[in-house]
User: Fold this.
Amino acid sequence: MSCPVTGRATDSLSSGSTGAEPIVLDPLVRDREGEIARLRESGPITRIDLLGAVAFSVTDHAEARQLLTDPRLVKDINRWNAWRDRRITREWPLIGMIDAGRSMFTVDGAEHRRLRAMTAQAVTPRRVEGMRPAIERITADLLDRVAELGADGSPVELKETFALPLPMKVVSELMGVDAKDHPRLHELYDAFFSMLTPQEERLAVIEEMDVFYTRVVAEKKAAPGDDLTSALILADEGGEPLTDEEVIGNLKAMVAAGHETTISLILHAVRALLDNPDQLALVLSGEVGWEAVIEETLRWASPSTHLLMRFATEDIEVAGTVIPEGEGVVMSYAAIGRDPAQHGEDADRFDITRTLPIRHMAFGHGPHICPGAALSRLEAAIALPALFERFPRMALAVPNEEIRNMPVMTQNDLAALPILIDAADR
Assistant:
């Protein structure tokens, strides 16, 4: 089988007990809404084709909750039949999402608890809350730049000028990365996620990331500071201190998850509010709070579209489907967030008046729940009201239907969000 993006040959996985042909996911993400609908229509557990690798996709909230706490599903890539049989190799474009080095995101059981305890010791609620002044400062500076660019009535690209640099600056400041490294770090992550990146280049990007984080860790070991990297290096509660490999693995994954999640959350909240002026009016009047906007955006436009991947250590029956031992399981959070059994028959509709709390799973569930959720929520809770307070007459600069997704299969990433900061018709 030929990979539709890279053109390289990849072998199909023989997988599954469902009779239907797997749904082939579009690597260019040209119709995300339609793809979500097709996944949901296929049932709570369905097969998908990820650039030649067939896996089971979980699309319902209840089944996802069950499987995310099932110890028979593990992160160890060596339990994957296709990897053991070499039907999938490092030439597969999504391999970096699974074979990502040793970190709390790639191990299970006692080792996962140890690594997560060390990270929890470093990413404390106090450390997250301590970032508030920095987030407010960065937000204000970026909004000044947005105002400058849009002062003559020209459209301003909100992703490039605000939604992207904000979390990148915040997470880099949190981990103690020099500001001069921010542009290259973003370029690396962009190339890593994009399905347009040739695999040879992607593997080189992964290697450059390893070199970058190795240097950061070495510098912090020599001169620790008040930052996340130093805290991870010095963490010693709950077992042996983290190795350099484990610190590097945790940092790589946390920066990826931290800034990508917040970019998506900010952009989709802005897009949805500007496309629903009646709901925006409720927020601006104070009738509905920003917490509702944030949680509804996380549910309706989950930052993670498909979370790769767990592997069955034995046959697992769920919702009338058997997931055979050695097969991969993907949590399709975009579909899970639209589950009508959990969120009502209007689950496809953005509605900030839903009864709180909105019990979504945008940040996961169970042992591997995202450790950066609190920081992402804090950034959005500061950035969104500041943005709309500064530009209350803001509007989309293009019709909503013209807004496109980035060619990223795993993340819900918009290519751009052009706005007018003072629309004449508002």
